[in-house]
Design brief:
Blueprint (H helix, E strand, L loop, with lengths): L25 H30 L1 H18 L3 E3 L3 E4 L10 E7 L5 H14 L4 E5 L27 E6 L6 H12 L4 E4 L25 H7 L5 E2 L8 E5 L15 E3 L4 E2 L7 E8 L13 E3 L6 E3 L5 E10 L5 E7 L10 H14 L43
Parallel strand pairs: 3-4, 3-5, 5-6, 6-15
Antiparallel strand pairs: 1-2, 2-4, 7-10, 8-9, 8-11, 11-14, 12-13, 14-15
Length: 401
């Protein structure tokens, strides 16, 4: 209460003692004067402080710094536990949607490529994104640990899954949560070795049919194809993506024209219900402008010989998978997707477009896929991963290099 606005008269006689109705005792008047004086002194000091703020650069800078600190303290752009990381989104079309990335392969550096894509989708498109990893006992990312999936609880709220997995065999809890997500019909965006995502589940396991050797496993049954063979020369013949003529008008190719990757073409024969989007032209070398390779090779499936690029193998397709719960999964699969492949802008755009397609959202005319924070991926190869990296090292503001 402001002492200058205190009026005992205004409050009637409630402030007077019984013997002084209609008047004020000297003690009451003294206390009132003291209160008024204290109030005037406090306001004078406050006025001096405001004047100092106006005239002192040091104080203005200090106040601004404190305000900025308060704002930063309230913002939480990156959430993470010891073994997972989540990127809180900026505003965008994906607001309210949660995409979960599953990084777990020994060779193609999914632990680098998927966080990079997750940052793009959160910061450029408004999706909340969470990346889960294979972890070592020391608390660092270990792609060689095929029995590990960190923080599988994130799958419970997944609106879509982006995965680059190879020969995983997760504990029951992680497998159950993944299975539940698939059965409720979430879209699946599958990269490179995800055609052979699982193996080594024990006989009699509820997940045994996911094993690579069981009728093509999860790859053939859900994605539309399993691992067959390296078709182009591994680490010696790169890939140029050629859009299938019948798919040129598909919105998934919005803004996409030039696709190149350092990984080789896989031999692949997607199931008849797949829509072929992209074919892989085997090149004579590892450079973008190298000429197409020109030699013959026997197919693995029937041992018949054909030209290496005649016909070209499918390297990207979509499929509508009706799962055993009667739900429909929109599936996009590409046998490209190594961390080094994702340096190519239009390949990143194709994958971002596939997320929109999977969620039945309008595909942007030309999606923004600019790298967030910097990106220098490690060359692919077994046991070539960066040692000692923790999920927190991949937070927003930290380059992946």
């Amino acid at each position: 209460m402001n002492p200058e606005n205190t009026s005992f008269e205004g409050r009637g006689n409630r402030g007077a003692s019984k013997g002084f109705r209609g008047g004020h005792s000297p003690a009451i008047r003294a206390r009132t004067e003291i209160s008024l004086a204290i109030g005037r002194e406090r306001r004078h000091k406050l006025s001096q402080s405001h004047s100092l703020m106006k005239t002192s650069p040091f104080i203005r800078v200090r106040a601004a710094a404190l305000a900025c600190f308060a704002l930063l303290a309230c913002a939480v752009p990156t959430l993470f536990g010891a073994d997972w990381i989540s990127y809180e989104p900026k505003p965008g079309p994906g607001t309210g949607k949660h995409i979960v990335f599953l990084a777990g392969d020994e060779e193609y550096r999914s632990e680098e490529g998927l966080p990079m894509l997750a940052k793009i989708l959160s910061q450029r498109h408004g999706f909340k994104t969470t990346v889960l990893f294979s972890m070592g006992a020391d608390g660092t990312i270990d792609p060689n640990n095929g029995g590990s999936l960190s923080h599988p609880e994130a799958l419970d709220s997944a609106d879509a899954i982006v995965m680059l997995l190879r020969f995983r065999h997760w504990p029951d809890d992680a497998s159950k949560r993944f299975d539940a997500a698939v059965k409720r019909g979430v879209p699946i965006i599958a990269l490179r070795t995800s055609t052979h995502a699982f193996n080594d589940y024990a006989k009699g396991s509820p997940w045994e049919d996911w094993n690579y050797g069981r009728k093509g496993g999860f790859g053939r049954q859900v994605l539309g194809e399993t691992w067959v063979n390296h078709w182009g020369g591994h680490k010696s013949e790169a890939t140029r993506g050629i859009i299938e003529p019948s798919a040129k008008s598909d919105p998934i190719f919005n803004g996409v024209a030039d696709i190149f990757g350092l990984t080789d073409v896989y031999e692949a024969y997607p199931t008849a219900d797949c829509k072929i989007l992209l074919r892989g032209q085997v090149l004579k070398g590892m450079n973008h402008d190298d000429a197409p390779a020109d030699y013959k090779k026997k197919r693995a499936n029937d041992k018949m010989e054909q030209g290496i690029n005649d016909p070209m193998m499918a390297i990207a397709w979509t499929r509508e998978n009706k799962n055993e719960n009667g739900k429909n999964n929109r599936v996009f699969t590409t046998t490209m997707g190594a961390a080094t492949d994702l340096v190519t802008e239009d390949l990143r755009r194709l994958i971002v477009n596939a997320v929109y397609w999977g969620l039945a959202m309008p595909v942007p005319a030309k999606a923004n896929v600019a790298i967030v924070d910097g990106y220098k991926p490690t060359a692919y190869g077994f046991d070539g991963f960066r040692k000692g990296v923790k999920p927190a090292d991949l937070a927003l503001g930290k380059p992946i290099e």
